[in-house]
Design a protein that fits this description.
Elements lengths: L14 H4 L19 E2 L7 E2 L20 E6 L6 H5 L10 E4 L4 E7 L5 E9 L5 E6 L6 H14 L7 H7 L7 H5 L10 H10 L5 H12 L16 H16 L5 H12 L3 H7 L5 H9 L6 H10 L10 H10 L8 H7 L7 H16 L9
Helix pairs in contact: 6-9, 8-9, 11-12
């Protein structure tokens, strides 16, 4: 089994945010029916929306940009871009934008060489599925093409070998939809720094608050040419903001020192950060690294591990207890030991088995009214 950098998270918003009247509970649907938005984040209060996020393009009027570069990436089989994007709520966090009508994922990205680019990612249909990555912000050098390809593969978890997990899924009625629909991967940022920072932002608050905080912070990032899009602020930029300004912008209270410390650690070239970013840490080494980051607790650590392809530990939080109480334990709240025993047959894929069993149920049944702690 290959373990390379893969990539998550998420939950809250509702009709009240859109000014709509409350709607009746959603009808039951098959697991592979068109999915709703699901957003889960360890340690938060969770909620669901009944439909995928719609991008309001009127809020971002198109601007003329020069012709650029098109990259074509081979895809593992099966793979589905939509399933990967909607695997959790990371796509709601800038600089991601998901357009469900065009089935296009957009992201503003700063490459390691400092160049800034807008990426438009679509899955091409036809004989052999491929990924089309348009970079309309100008031509890329050969080195930039390689860097961009690596970033996109990381975001979509394309380097993760899921053959063993899919084999297990095919033997379980609850999980057969996963290989059939091309699910099983998580969306992540273009780099580990951003994933960890966003995970810290989302602890112990509602997901709606986390989205607002992250997107306020992201609005301070560098502009990408004439596009009007902004990339995520670099570690050095976050460090230079300092605690006071970062607190004013993000409104994240006690988490702000954790964000500054994490940015300083990355900006200073900390060897652990360099090794983790390069994918050189695995298993217990990676777990110890995440737990060494102030603001990352056990559940968030396991969630980040799951995002990056290490699924041997379930990130147990209130949503796990709620789902299993209602679906696996006859209304009784299970113990952590019972949860781990339940998924033990999945071995190193326990967390994925739980997550993708939980996901269809959450899409069908979770509403803002039921989104509290278990």
């Amino acid at each position: 089994m290959h373990r390379k950098r893969g990539v998550i998270l998420s939950a809250e918003e509702g009709d009240r945010q859109r000014g709509r009247a409350a709607r009746p509970p959603p009808e039951e649907r098959a697991p592979d029916a068109p999915s709703t938005r699901v957003i889960i984040l360890p340690g938060t209060i969770h909620a669901m929306l009944r439909g995928p996020m719609v991008v309001d393009h009127s809020a971002f009027p198109p601007r003329p940009i020069p012709s650029g570069t098109r990259l074509t990436l081979a895809l593992p089989t099966p793979f589905n871009l939509r399933q990967t994007v909607l695997s959790h709520g990371w796509y709601e966090l800038a600089p991601f934008r998901w357009d469900p009508a065009r089935q296009t994922l957009e992201r503003a990205e700063v490459l390691p060489d400092g160049s800034r680019h807008l990426l438009r990612i679509r899955q091409m249909k036809g004989g052999k599925s491929r990924l089309k990555v348009d970079v309309p912000t100008g031509p890329l050098s050969p080195g930039q093409r390689r860097q961009t390809s690596r970033r996109v593969r990381r975001m979509l978890g394309l380097n993760l070998n899921l053959d063993d997990f899919w084999a297990l899924c095919r033997r379980d009625p609850r999980l057969r939809y996963v290989p059939r629909t091309g699910a099983g991967r998580f969306l992540s940022s273009g780099n580990l720094y951003e994933d960890v920072l966003k995970a810290i932002c989302g602890t112990n608050i509602t997901w709606r608050q986390a989205v607002a905080a992250v997107n306020r912070l992201a609005a301070l990032g560098p502009v990408i040419g004439a596009t009007g899009y902004r990339a995520f602020p670099t570690p050095d930029a976050v460090r230079r903001m300092g605690p006071r300004r970062l607190s004013d912008v993000s409104r994240l209270g006690y988490r702000v020192p954790y964000l500054v410390e994490w940015a300083e650690r990355v900006a200073s070239g900390d060897p652990g950060c360099v090794a983790a970013e390069a994918g050189e840490l695995a298993g217990e080494d990676l777990r110890r690294f995440f737990l060494s980051v102030r603001g990352v607790g056990k559940s968030t650590c396991h969630y980040l591990m799951m995002m990056h392809g290490f699924a041997d530990q379930i990130p147990i939080d209130s949503s796990v207890y709620l789902y299993l109480r209602e679906n696996r334990f006859g209304g009784r709240r299970p113990t952590e030991r019972q949860i781990r025993r339940l998924y033990e047959p999945f071995g190193v894929w326990k967390a994925y088995a739980y997550w993708f069993e939980f996901l269809p149920w959450a899409r069908q049944h979770w509403s803002p009214q039921r989104g509290g702690a278990a």
